[in-house]
Amino acid sequence: MRDQLTKYYKLIEHGPLEPEFYADVYDDGPRLRLEPTVKEILRRLDPELADCDIDPFYNWAGTMTAVDSGLGILATCKAIETKLAPDIPVLPADQFHPWVWQAARTLWDSAHYRHSVQAAATAINDHTQNKLGRRDIADTQLMQEAFSPRSPEPGRPRLRCPGDPASNTTQSRQRGALQYSTGCFSAIRNPATHEQGEWDQETALECLAALSLLARWIDDWAVDKAP
Known about the structure:
- The chain has 227 residues and is mostly helical.
- 67% of the residues lie in helices and 3% in strands.
- Helix 3 packs across helix 5 (60-84), helix 6 packs antiparallel against helix 10 (201-220) and helix 7 (113-132) packs parallel to helix 10 (201-220).
- The longest helix has 27 residues, at 168-194.
């Protein structure tokens, strides 16, 4: 944004010239191509700046002031965010479990948020199948089998929570993981696959965070196989 405003500023800083003289002396193409972007940037930075009549011929002073104000906001916004933002933790999406973010990233970058969640859930399913050697079941049924507290059977291995298996806490985590994993596939993966329309960014990001936790459990927990 700073680069675009700076380019526009330099194009009009010569002063308010008559349109006819301006056309004879300057190539007006770059200014015309930049103008819609400049107006949108100013609107995003401060709605009041968007009310300014951006016209370097008949409102040169106002235009220069608006662009200069936009540059001033950009010069200080990082410091304002740092100094005035509440002291809260931030979790960048690229810190999600690799199974999740690597699957979701391309779709996320193209603003296909619902499909990015679907891709992440599919990746978790695939990695779980590989870890357990189960290609005969998938999705919710796979999670039910993987996190089941029942003893493993031939061809039906389980994922086991780290810790003392006799501990109430470990047993509680095992039961909770079973409920959580099936919930993720029923309440996140299935809607992401079958719903129509786009999801908003915040909803999709929260879903990816939920899937990231599930992916870490699957990746970290040991496989328990029948003798």
